[in-house]
Design brief:
By secondary structure, this protein is of the alpha/beta class. It is built from 25 helices and 29 strands. The strands form 6 sheets. It has a 7-stranded mixed beta sheet, with helices on both faces. The protein has a 6-stranded antiparallel beta sheet with strand order 1-29-2-5-4-3. β8, α3 and β9 form a beta-alpha-beta unit.
């Protein structure tokens, strides 16, 4: 059965009932002219362009990638693939891939050989270490590399260089997920499982546009909605997403007010005594303080702050308060605001006081946005120590030092690991003299881009960029290292519900491009990092050896991988950690028998003050939680830091669209995906458009105190007073000289966003900028280049032709349920 998976991103329905297993449906797409019989080999992999971890097989013909197909037995996707999975692999074959290293000479990047490039990096590293010490060197990585690569990076950065400056762009998308889990449960680790979607009676999505960010899991929800005993949905989102259109209750609050809304839901839950008192007594601390904090947070109080009807808040409270199986998911609508951690923690609180944890259909998914964001957290390639060890706990540091065979003093733990926003501030101020950026594009993805471009362009900052393409960031670098990517190297990815998949090398990388692991190991060899006995700090060379080394580091920790191996993952497919020899099938849900990692001797973190971000003292934590229970941490609502005024009367929110990933370095090079959403746009509601005399397709200017962009207007059913701009669009595919630095109008959403972050998770704010909207030019028959299949659908469907997929339908193969294609 052929299907246009651009116009219909979620494919056909395979209905099933609650508590039944999700039936399989195998999706596939082969390059034009390639018949299934021509495929010479199929190599296993998992999705790289979202956090779902959908398993797939890569088709190989004559040494090149030729397509993909889903895997029917995969526990995550049951054979389904989303549009980015089906088409995104084609970016690997782009003609503008980096194939040789580049170095800056006389102000220009020129090609060189690997030995010259790497020795230049190593020489600058040695110079900085000799002159200024390890604090002068920082590493900023991605959520798209493999576990093995993050672990190598963590070892060389923390034990080799000895720097505290190691973080990833996961700071922009999943830092709050990690912090909220640590605040509530003492440790990171996703409590729930995607399988809970099969069993939940109510699914509550808080700031999570699942339909566009995890398309396969939204397909799972749609299949349940089409079957018997469908779940009821609560959607909290200011935009008219597909989730909102299917919701039993949709709340569209004013952005930045999630804590007020959640406090009202907690108020109603406690007021009506919808509390599992036995669970609360046995497994939590802090209930009395929480109840006192939310006692005055009535629906009427929250309605005034959130600008939603009190009756709707009451309906939402009844929905989540009376169900027998509540699954909640949380993502960027919560995470990228000024009270991000406080709001995410209140979702955890709701589950804890209702006892909705550790059983089928009752769980929390503090979601990720990237395919290996979970791996950065486990391996210590972000603001944590490897294996979820506590930097404030000397025994944890000593244990890690034993694994690496170094002295504990070698591992920096005098202060919290430096978060990305602080690292870039240090680079701006000059204390960081070298910044190594791997697999990410901060010149488009970080807030306040004029500032980011200026600091990256400083002559005193030596910048190394490791990537597939000459991105906006790479253009500012001193050394550019061409990297191999998915399908061109071997490694593991761990998805948002702790499922580990093995991705096999299918083809050779182009030219001289190298796997990220090889690049990091080359650097470690040139630096001659040694352990305390004089042996090599890193003694492994191949991905499988790195995986085995990681297993030793994870042993006995919450994210225990010791029961996994490459062979087991090849045979069994995705397996959820913790997985040990005693539990070789993995662990579907955490906390099935109480809270396991919150004891003061075991916890990953003692927590933080949610309003200031100040670290909780170990003695204070031990006094509060001597028995290691979950912590019910209350928080008062605080107004957003930047509010609309006469000059900037709107709030501006940025976010994703279904067809693109991050800064479009891959998806923008794929015809099917690029044609579905070829250019940036701005969304405003019909009432605001009429008031300003604006219409569909008008060229408008969005300005904030930091900068501005120009784009065409899409009139939608977004909440009044709010503008939305997708953040994917930078300048790599525009004419030279276009953009703010060339004197032209901005295109990137982050020209406008603010340098500010949540106090606890340090995640930057992308949802609450104050903005102005003005006319630049009339539409003149044009319309916004925004998809009509998604949250950007026009409020008047007849005013805009279907834009998703452009003029061409891209057919994929959808098999019959349970079959193959």
């Amino acid at each position: 059965m052929k299907a246009d998976r651009i116009a219909d991103p979620w494919g056909g329905r395979v209905p099933y009932r609650r508590h039944e297993a999700w039936p399989s449906r195998v999706d596939s797409y082969l390059a034009e002219g390639v018949e299934p019989g021509a495929v010479q080999s199929w190599m296993g992999a998992a999705s790289l362009l979202h956090s779902g971890g959908d398993a797939m097989d890569i088709a190989v013909v004559d040494g090149r990638l030729a397509g993909v197909r889903g895997r029917a037995a995969d526990r995550v996707s049951r054979g389904r693939l989303g549009p980015k999975d089906l088409f995104g692999w084609q970016a690997n074959g782009s003609s503008d891939r980096l194939t040789r290293p580049l170095v800056r000479r006389d102000g220009h990047l020129v090609e060189t050989d690997w030995a010259t490039a790497m020795e230049l990096v190593a020489a600058r590293t040695r110079e900085l270490l000799d002159e200024r010490g390890p604090g002068s060197i920082g590493f900023y990585t991605s959520g798209q590399l493999f576990l093995e690569e993050y672990y190598a990076l963590a070892v060389l950065a923390r034990a080799g260089i000895g720097t505290n400056h190691l973080d990833g762009n996961t700071r922009l998308c999943t830092a709050t997920a990690a912090e909220a889990l640590k605040e509530s449960f003492g440790c990171d680790g996703q409590p729930g499982s995607f399988d809970d979607l099969d069993h939940a009676d109510v699914i509550a999505l808080f700031g999570h546009n699942m339909a566009e960010t995890q398309t396969v899991q939204w397909t799972r929800v749609l299949d349940r909605l089409a079957g018997g005993d469908p779940p009821r949905l609560l959607c909290v989102d200011p935009r008219p997403t597909q989730v909102a259109r299917h919701a039993t209750v949709h709340l569209a609050p004013r952005v930045g007010t999630n804590v007020a809304l959640l406090n009202a839901l907690l108020h109603e839950t406690i007021r009506h005594d919808r509390v599992d008192h036995d669970f609360v007594e046995a497994h939590t601390v802090g209930f009395e303080e929480l109840a006192e904090r939310v006692a005055s947070c009535t629906p009427e109080w929250a309605a005034d702050i959130c600008d939603v009807p009190a009756t709707r808040i009451t309906e939402a409270a009844e929905l989540v308060g009376t169900t027998d199986a509540l699954l909640s998911t949380v993502l960027q609508g919560v995470y990228q605001a000024h009270q991000a951690t406080a709001a995410a923690v209140q979702v955890n609180n709701l589950h804890l006081i209702r006892g909705m944890l550790g059983r089928p259909g009752a769980g929390v998914l503090q979601m990720n946005g990237q395919p290996s964001a979970e791996n950065t957290r486990e391996c210590g390639a972000d603001g944590d120590l490897p294996g979820f060890r506590n930097w404030q706990n000397d025994s944890h540091v000593a244990d890690l030092a034993k694994v690496w065979n170094v002295e504990p003093s070698t591992i920096p733990h005098f202060a919290p690991p430096t978060h990305a926003m602080q690292m870039f501030r240090y680079a701006e101020q000059g204390s960081i003299g070298m910044l190594w950026i791997s697999g990410t594009n901060p010149a488009v993805s970080l807030p306040e881009l004029a500032r980011i471009r200026a600091l990256l362009a400083q002559e005193r900052l030596f910048t190394v960029v490791q990537d597939l393409f000459l991105t906006e960031t790479a253009r500012l670098a001193d050394v550019v290292l061409p990297a191999a990517t998915w399908g061109e190297k071997t490694g593991t990815l761990t998805n948002a519900d702790r499922t580990v998949h093995l991705c096999e090398k299918a083809v050779e990388p182009p030219g001289e491009a190298r796997p990220d692991l090889d690049i990091f190991l080359d650097f470690a060899r040139r630096m001659d990092f040694r352990d305390k006995d004089g042996g090599p700090l890193i003694g492994w060379r191949e991905p499988e050896e790195a995986f085995e080394a990681w297993k030793r580091c994870s042993a006995g920790r919450p994210c225990d991988y010791t029961g996994l191996s490459y062979d087991r993952l090849r045979d069994a497919g995705g397996i959820q950690w913790p997985c040990t020899e005693a539990n070789p099938r993995g662990t579907e849900r955490l906390y099935t028998d109480g809270i396991t990692w919150a004891h003061p001797d075991d916890c990953e973190s003692y927590g933080k003050d949610l309003e200031t971000g100040a670290a909780v003292d170990p003695v204070e934590y031990r006094s509060l939680n001597p028995d290691g229970k979950a912590v019910l941490k209350a928080s008062a609502y605080v107004e957003p830091h930047e509010m609309p005024d006469e000059r900037y009367p709107f709030q501006l929110s940025t976010g994703r669209t279904l067809y693109h990933f991050h800064t479009r370095t891959k998806t923008g090079r794929v015809a099917q995906l690029d044609e579905a959403a070829p250019e940036v746009w701005v969304e405003a509601c019909a009432a605001d458009a009429v008031r300003l005399g604006l219409g569909e397709g008008d060229l408008v200017r969005v300005a904030t105190p930091r900068g501005a962009l120009e784009a065409r207007l899409r009139v939608t059913d977004i909440r009044p007073g709010l503008l939305f701009v997708p953040f994917h669009y930078g300048y790599w595919d525009t004419k030279e000289g276009d953009g703010p630095d060339g004197g032209g109008p901005g295109r990137a959403a982050n020209e406008t966003t603010i340098t500010d972050w949540d106090p606890a998770s340090k995640q930057p704010l992308f949802k609450t900028a104050a903005a102005a909207l003005t006319l630049v030019a009339r539409a003149d028959g044009r319309y916004a280049p925004a998809p009509t299949t998604t949250a950007s659908a026009p409020s008047d469907p007849d005013s805009v032709p279907a834009t998703a997929g452009g003029q061409q339908a891209y057919a994929t193969q959808n098999s019959e349920p349970g079959g193959t294609s």
